[in-house]
Amino acid sequence: xxxxxxxxxCLVFELDGYKILFDPGDYSFIEGLVTPQMFADVDIVIxxxxxxxxxxxxxxxxxxxxxxxxxxxxxxxxxQLDRAxxxxxxxxxxxxxxxxxKLQAFPVKHALIMDNPLPQMTGFLINDKxxxxxxxxxxxxxDFKNVELLIMVTMAPFANEVMIAAFADKxxxxxxxxxxxxxxxxxxxEKRYAAYEKHFDRLGIKFxxxxxxxxxxxx
Length: 219
What we know:
CATH topology: Metallo-beta-lactamase, Chain A
Number of domains: 1
Largest sheet: 7 strands, mixed
Strand order of the largest sheet: 6-5-4-3-2-1-14
Strand content: 25-35%
Oligomer: single chain
Helix content: 10-25%
């Protein structure tokens, strides 16, 4: 399974020629470095919650117009898709198979954001190996302790590095792929990711420093 990152929290999972696109939000597209055409061959698009750094109607519509991909999401996002006339499948607290992928979906609580209501958000365990908790660090995620790979928020208005590292320390994944970094310039990410790498090396956890668009990991 190959996981490629397209800025911030926009990810493509690929296995046996089948592709899943997660959360093509505005932070990935705003500078023109990532375009909908890059996702012309995705099979499904998963939207985890309504925040614009994960979901924008116009961006999603462009991608599905090009690719013909099916949209998978939760009820709250679905209400916006209904208004836009975009068909979708609800997957918010169940397990389903798409191509070679087993997707275990479950509700997760978004970390608190100043003066903002919390959205409905859906986390995923992919093929029993990759935990994608999206923007959550709640204790119930520790049920996935020792998972092979954690998709980990690394910077956000709702978190700091001490909080983020403490969550991952308790979860003890074997590997970490950093996301949610679209706020930062390259030099800043390089410095902070070096700090994360040093921290997790002491625990025997591999921290993947992924900066390049389309870069990622294979597990």
